[in-house]
Amino acid sequence: MNAQPLPLDNEYIISYFKLRGAIGVLGLLMPILVRLGAWWREGILSNESISAYYYTSMRDVFVGIMVATGVFLFCYRGPDRQDNILTNIAGPVLDRYRTISDGATVRPPHPGEI
Questions:
Q1: How far is residue 90's CA from residue 70's CA, in Å, rounded to a whole number?
Q2: Distance CA 107, CA 15 (A)
Q3: What is the pLDDT of residues 30-70, one digit of tens each?
Q4: Bridge partners (DSSP) listed for residue 47
């Protein structure tokens, strides 16, 4: 008797779980990484928005995570057509978001905060 493989044994399903997990991990880690990096490298404790970290030394990390998330969203195939359309739109939009300035400013540290 040949046992049928369980649906979760399929390598494609597992890779999509990993892709979804990577999108989530990047989304959760980006604010932490850029804030800690800006604090450690430049003494910037906080900014007006997450987009303001683009104007710090953490620009490469910020852009890299945004591009990676955009690529992951574009490659992701959901359970239905609507999900596929939305992620295919969200991927390139997220990739282009990094090029749009929000006019945010970096708050320099006050004396005694460092």
A1: 7
A2: 41
A3: 999 999 999 999 888 887 788 888 888 888 888 888 888 88
A4: 106
Q: Which residue is it, tokens 């597992």?
A: 14
Alpha-carbon distances of 82 from 27, 79, 89, 109, rounded to whole Å: 22, 9, 11, 46
Residue with tokens 């959901």: 78
Mean model confidence pLDDT for the chain: 76
Query: What's the one-letter identity of residue 80?
Result: D
DSSP 61-111: HHHHHHHHHHHHHHH---SSHHHHHHHHHHHHHHHHHTTS-----BPPPPT
Which two three-digit tokens encode residue 92?
Answer: 């390139």
For residue 29, the model assigns a pLDDT of: 92
Cα distance between residue 19 and residue 6, in whole Å: 20
Strand partners, 106: 47
